[in-house]
Amino acid sequence: MNYSFRKKNKIVKYIVIHYTGMKTLKLAYKKLVDERSDVSTHYLISRNGFIFNLLCPKYKAWHAGESKWKNNNNINDYSIGIELENKGHDFGYSNYSNKQYWSLKKLINFLKINFNLIDESIVFHSDISPNRKQDPGEKFFIKKIGISRFNLKKTKKKYSVDEMLKLYGFHETYIKKYKKFCIMSVKRSLNYKYISPNQSKKFIKDFYNLLFS
Ligand SMILES: [Zn+2]
Fold first, then answer.
1. DSSP 14-81
2. Ligand 1 center to residue 157 CA distance, Å?
3. What is the Å distance from ligand 1's center to 201 Cα?
4. Which of 35, 45, 120, 132 has the fewest Cβ atoms nearer than 10 Å?
């Protein structure tokens, strides 16, 4: 399978959550361990809650692709990848199973302890590559694994959408270049049913509450 060595100055800071986006678990598994696929991951969690450990996290997997988060580029360098079995938006996007949430929770707790990570270290593929990716998507409920990603303190009364996008964690280049996609990614985090780039009053309020409460 594909992997690289981590550079000494690039430590694990994030866990990236994905969906497989393939018709079957078997196809996803085959692709993730195939050297010719150009992709790989550390963990794969099936719908029945089985955790496949495909690569030791001390090595770098190729799951994020072109990506940025906060002040970092190439998030593969800084992260552990977890793929959840789900056909995805192209092949029949479905709810994640309770067994998947249960296993994911156990795995994340284990990784948090071993890599000294906090709730804010958990990111979605759609956050770090908003222009290209939609996974794990609006049907992924992070509260089900007891994670609260944003615990920000208010320093003033009002924030612009751009300021909130920055606080959420999007890289400044992406906010400038792909603002619409960034907004759609936030809507996925908010579990909106319909994902559009429009900035309604409700969205602005929900976004604010996501960051500050
Ligand atoms: Zn992904």
1. EEEEEE--SS-HHHHHHHHH-GGGS---SEEE-TT-PEEE-S-TTEEP--S-S-EETTEE-GGGGEEE
2. 35
3. 30
4. 35
